[in-house]
Each structure stands twice: as C-alpha cells, then as structure tokens.
Amino acid sequence: GSELYQALEDITDHHIKDGLVSLMSVATDYHRYCAYELYNAMDGHGTDEGVLTSIIVTRADKDLSVIKEMYYEMFDETLSKAIKDDTSGDYEKTLLNLVN
Fold first, then answer.
1. Distance between CA atoms of 52 and 49, rounded to whole angstroms?
2. Quick one: which of 4, 35, 80, 99 could link to 71 by a disulfide (CB 3.0–4.6 Å)?
3. What's the rounded Cα separation, in Å, for the pair 74 and 67?
4. 3: Cβ–Cβ under 8 A, 6 or more apart, which residues?
5. 33-74, pLDDT tens digit by residue?
6. What is the 3-state secondary structure (H, E, C) of the chain?
C-alpha cells in the first residue's frame, strides 16, 4: 500500500497522479474516500448535488453508518450538520432522512 503511494509521488503529471491516488483511495479505504468526496461536494461555493445524491442514495445503511463515522472523524462535524449547512428545502429534508 504505502509503496504504491510513494511511487505515485514520483509521477509529475498531476492529473494522472490525482486520478491514480483516487483509485487507490477507493481500493484501500472506500468509506474514507466517500467521506472525503462528500466533504468536497459541500466545501466552498456551491454544492455538488450529483456527488451528494450519488453517495448518499446508493449506499446501504451499513455503509452509510461507517461513512458518517468516518466523516465526523475526519472533519470534526457530523454529516447531518454539514448537509443542513449546505442544502435547503425538500432536497435537504430528503438527504437528512436518508442519513439519520
């Protein structure tokens, strides 16, 4: 695992490196990857609703529970709070019903 990440550091094309690091993340720690993607979808201006919907709607309850724990561990905020802060209306209610 760590040897592969080290080898990726030697790649100079950042697009290729970013893609390979993402693939490695999915393969080695899927729940952490999902938490990171959810954070990025709500970070900064705007919300990437496609990512939020894709991750939250398509995960089984067991996966979503682990993703929520990982999200809190990584970002010191509950996923529910992040959703409340970044979404609104029926979309917010739907996502919160799914994660709670």
1. 5
2. 35
3. 10
4. none
5. 899 999 999 998 889 999 999 999 998 888 999 999 999 999
6. CHHHHHHHHCCCCHHHHHHHHHHHHHHHCHHHHHHHHHHHHHCCCCCCHHHHHHHHHHCCHHHHHHHHHHHHHHHCCCHHHHHHHHCCHHHHHHHHHHHC
What is the amino acid identity at position 78?
T
Using the CB atoms, write b or e for 34-71: b if 16+ within 10 Å: bbbbbeebbeeeebbeeebeebbeebeeeebebbbebb
- Amino acid of residue 59: R
Q: Which residues contact 43 (CB under 8 A, 6 or more apart)?
A: none
